[in-house]
Each structure stands twice: as C-alpha cells, then as structure tokens.
Amino acid sequence: MGLPRSEYVQEDKVGVYHCTTRCVRRAFLAGFDSHTGRDFSHRKQWIEDRLQFLVSIFSVEVTTFSVMSNHYHVTLRIRPDIVETWSDREIASRWLTLCPKRYRSKKKPIEPIEEQVRNLALCTERIAELRKRLGSLSWFMRCLNEFIARAANKEDRVKGRFWESRFKCLALLDFAAIAGGMVYVDLNPIRAGIAQTPEDSDFTGIQQRIRIWKQKTSSTNRESLSSSWLCPISSKDDSLSILPMSEEEYFILVDKSGRLLRSDKRGVIDADLAPILERIGAKPDAWSETISCFEDKFHLAAGLLDNLRKFADQLGKRWFAGLSASRRVFEPLKS
Asked: Is the overall model pTM greater than 0.90, yes or no?
C-alpha cells in the first residue's frame, strides 16, 4: 500500500525513519560499473560528506548510514523540539549557509555576512517557513539527493535523473524497530559480500563509530580526539540517546548479527546477544530473519505489534503490510 509521505511522516514530532534512495535504473553510478569499466566509487565520499554537512544545518540527526554502489541507506531522527529552540537569527544563519548567496568559486561558498543574516531574520513569515524546512525529513533528503545528482551529472556531462523519482521511507516506531533497522543498514556491505566485518565496511555508520570508539579507548590525549557527527547510541541525556544500550553493546549486536549473515558461519544466536534482543523486544530466534529481510517485511512502518496497530489507527487504516512480520519477529516488552 503506497501513501504520500506527508500522511505518515509526522514532522512536528520526534521520530526515526529509515530512508533508501537508488540510482536510476539501479545503475552503478556510485561504484565500479563492470559493463563500462568506469569507477565512480569516489562519489560514496560525496554522500558521506554531504550527510555530515547537512547534520550541522538541520535539526535532523543521522543514526547510521550505508553507501553502496547503486543505492544508499540512512536512518534519520527528526528533532522538531530542537529547531523550535533556535532563534530567528540562527535560522537565518543556518539557511544562508545551506543556500549561500555568494561564492568565491563554483565550489567555495562565502559565509553569510552579518547584514544578510540580520535582514533575513527580520522577515517573520520567511523565517517561519525556513524553520519548518530545517526540521523537515523531506527537505533534508532533498538537499542531499539534489546536491549529489547535480555533482554527478556535471562530472558525467549529462542531464536527467540520477536517482529514482522518490526515496523510500519507513517509520521505525520503537526500540526494537530502530535497532533492527540500524543493524540492517550497518550490515549492508556484509550482506552484499563486499566486507567481512563491520570495521571493514567502508562508508557505514558502524565503521565510523568503531574508529572513534577505538580512538577514545586508546588515546591519552583527550583534546585531540575527533567526535562523531552521528547521533549517540547512548548518552547521559536520554533525549540524545537512540537506543537503550551502551555503545559497546551495540557493537556486539552488529558484530554477532553480521556473523549470522555470513555463509561460512553457523546461524546460531550467541548467548551474549539474546539478553540485548530480549531487552528491546526482538525475538532472538527470529533476529537473523529480521536483519536480512528488513525492507522486504515492512513497508510504511516497523515496530512491535501494538505500535503498528496504533500507527494504522492514526492513518485511518485497518491493516497494512508488516503486521504478520511484526508478530513473528518482535514481541511485547516484559513489564
């Protein structure tokens, strides 16, 4: 069942969404194309860099991502509660940084000057519109996809579509769905057979998290440490955390889940993994099925059965695809 995103993406509420965008005709426009012999792998870095830039502008957080040769996945958390705290001047400054009026060269925009920021901040109606845009999932994805498409078309000296017409979007309604969606995204290179371990999975959120974690645990100079632009797995501030587990527990979850997907490993749930899954409402005996076929099983939303039913009620629907899958792979949390 297809629905306009505006009907189920509630941009006035904090929510987590799994988004997928594919290249037109699923061509290898961001990887090595064996048919033409051309290598476009450098474009994967474009996508990662653009994600990092957009996170600094929007009140939209990236929980994880995975850039493949002909598509990418990104899990986003929209934060309307944050954008509402920004002053009119901050909204103006962020928007002018995103859409600069002047450039030193075609690739180097000039930072907005005080007069530009001040004049825009005085336009009350315009600021109200921009505030909505800077908290919008659709605008975030638009500013990502359009930027990459223009750069790629310019490099190829062609016109026309680079991405398929719409990005797919799946609402993740609870911790079980968020964990399943994130692990599914982080393990994409392993599922595709182009990486053996999470730390070797290039252009993924899990690889970046592991690298920074290793820095923090091995470095004695805290001032020189780099920080991740990804949403923290856990934090002292619960509003910042994305999952009820530590970063180390998430690494265990991804690592042991990746072993389940490898053909040379037995698909048995490790004893260390089961308690983590049970805590978030995921059935250990169905976890392999969850992370290997996540997109195929859920369409508009994923989550515990009760949450899916509430979601259907909100949309005025009696049923939609994914309810039977939810019953099979997730279970009610124990009180």
From this structure: yes
Q: What is the pLDDT of residues 105-123, one digit of tens each?
A: 555 667 788 889 999 999 9
Q: Residue 99's Cα: distance from chain center in Å? A: 22
Choose among 169, 254, 162, 205: nearest CA to 62. 205
Q: Is 332 exposed, middle or buried (0-12, 13-18, 19+ CB in 10 A)?
A: exposed
CB 153 within 8 A of CB 162: yes
Residue pair 44/84 in contact by the 8 Å Cβ criterion: no
How do residues 118-165 score in pLDDT, each as one tens digit? 999 999 999 999 999 999 999 999 999 999 999 999 998 888 889 987
Q: In whole angstroms, how far apart are CA 305 and each of 164, 197, 213, 321?
A: 31, 32, 34, 12
